[in-house]
What does this fold into?
Amino acid sequence: MTDTLEPTTDQAGFARRDAAEIVAELTLEEKASLTSGASFWTTKAVERAGVPSIVLTDGPHGVRLQRGSADHLGIGDSVPATCFPPAVALGSTFDPELLERVGRALGEEARAEGVGVLLGPGINIKRSPLCGRNFEYLSEDPIVSGALGAALVRGLQSQGVGASLKHFAANNQEHDRMRASSDVDPRPLREIYLRGFQRVVEDAQPWTVMCSYNRINGVYASEDPWLLTSVLRDEWGFDGVVVSDWGAVNDRVAGLPAGLDLEMPASDGRTDAQLVAAVRDGRLDEAALDVAVRRAVELAQRATAGADADATYDVDAHHLLAREAAARGAVLLRNEGGLLPLAPATGSGNGQNVAVIGEFARTPRYQGAGSSLINPTRLDTALAAIEEQAGAGVVFAPGFAIDANDADAEASALVDEAVAAAAAADVAVLFLGLPAAHESEGFDREHLRLPGNQLALVDAVLEANPNTVVVLANGGVVELPFADRVPAILEGWLGGQAGGSGIADVLYGVVNPSGRLAETIPLRLEDTPAFLDFPGEFGHVRYGEGLFVGYRWYDARDAAVRYPFGHGLSYTTFAYSGLSIERDASGLTVRVTVENTGSRDGREVVQVYTGLAASTVQRAPRELKGFASVELAAGESREVSIAVRREDLAYWDTRVDRWVVEGGELTVEVGASSRDIRLTGTAAIDGDAVRLPLTMESSIGDVMADPIAGPAAAAALAGLAAGMGDTDVFTDEGMAKMMGSFPIGRLVGFPGIPVSYEQIEQLIAAANAGAGPADRTA
Ligand code: BGC
It folds into this structure.
């Protein structure tokens, strides 16, 4: 299939016309035609009315524009484009400013290729480390995903190219992804899985949102009016186009009024005809079609306004940006005895003798498989970059074959060679990672282990040279059984096309590492929150861990982890002091002074967590509410200010179906990771009022707590107690507790309790009417 890459119509003024007017000029068939694709990557044009076709393409960390045979699984070739680090590495930067720059660069490339919408970012929560597509997602935490996702969207759209925020929603596994129902309770759905989407929509207004393949609590995302209209549009104010994930449409006629505007890719006219027929026979209101078409026209207008046939981009500058991002996303997990940074070559001589071991140093694994597969403009290897930094004295040994696992004669020859190289060097740098076949879009991982041949190599190399550094290349977290034995570990994730040089920059201290874990590294798969509920069965996956995703789970259970959320070392050290917390109507302003107390310039990611120990609802002990990434010269100290939004303090109250901030004494923790809290303070928070009408089913406790009914009920109980000759009978602690959950309506007729049904009814009615003090006692 060949796509049309240029707009089919270049009608002057199209972008400025009133979209509703354009819709009014269209026939029913033309309107329906605008609600599905013309091809894999283009929308349809209606030339008669001046509506052009636009191009949508993957995404998210590069432009995968296919000019030849098209597919949505990364099979066919695409034009060369910068392969920026995938989301797993970008998430670890904790730096919205950097992500905005990456977004801008993506926008420049998309515009230069005539692309109107780039399909990303993907901000689904990393629920389980087994999800095959975690490399395309930012974090296990919604604030990180939301803040970074919004930054990417802002950068991209600043170039006149639309984002497609995906995959909306609760698409947290690949297994059975096109059918399975994610069965999630309302609180985790809102507080964990939707919160990041909400932030991106509200803060950055993406032009499009891509609905996911899966069902949510039994309903396909592509035909869920609650998700696509009530939540996305009515609550969050989304005004763009909802596009289906490629092939996510189940029932087009149900999907359209639910809020699915654009079906992708092409349906060969089949579903357009279904819409026409449904309008004709009255099953579908034409007004609903008009709304979807208006949005599609507005999208084409935005894309047309942003298009620039002469646009180009600076390939070298983008490669450098990809290198900067790769280095910034790498996380220094461990660095015993200051083994890193390595000594580079200087004017007076070469650097340390380094044995570079591991096939990944020569054959990088830098992106994940599937629809996000980019054809890079160039590709750096860590080996070449290390050779450049070290001057001379670098020996390379592949150590293992990437796709082999078992020990055989060939494997042991590779190990022998690696051991000899390690023994002769000052330092061994061992590049390990996951083979591409272990993680991909479309299927999940089976375990979290590195291949056995690589693990065996670690031991052999360590024995030959204790000064061993392990560098990891993987899109999802791996178990690190050697973590206590290897003195230095650098998690490089999938670093994009410049990942090799970015890693060398960190190894040699050209870049002082500042990457932080946006997801917990567990000790074992069995410890992970979704272990017992992943990937579900018979088309349903129950999110049994509820709110306790990622660090929330480990903290609530006080469980050990390999490396906690937010962790990441630097070649310098930072001291925290002077915590102050200010409150106003918009939330908290947390201020702290951070000092670089070491001898190197560096960057610190300051994290703010809150907790409410005395909460009446279930909560994790600490939840990230804000963060800042700050650059500090050696010796420099600076006050860092982090805003905590009041809405981020809210929980989803299932009694009233809305966000509620619970009042109380909030614990505010500021730290360098979720388990390296440096300063703790408190803030008294005013809660939102939640007034539930009293009923006969209300407990005596609820009634006593009511400002109107409470005093009246207390007076009645006091009278009763006096009559019984025991004034304390109802106020005694045990009795009060026991009576607390007793439904008030059930008191009627109890021997010795002279209260009538009508009296209780009156009490409730007075409370619900908000009656004044005179009435209360009546
Ligand atoms: C993926 C999307 C992607 C689309 C187009 C789908 O299979 O889930 O992320 O944007 O294909 O390639």
Notes: Confidence is low (pLDDT under 50) at residues 1-9, 771-778. The radius of gyration is 30 Å.
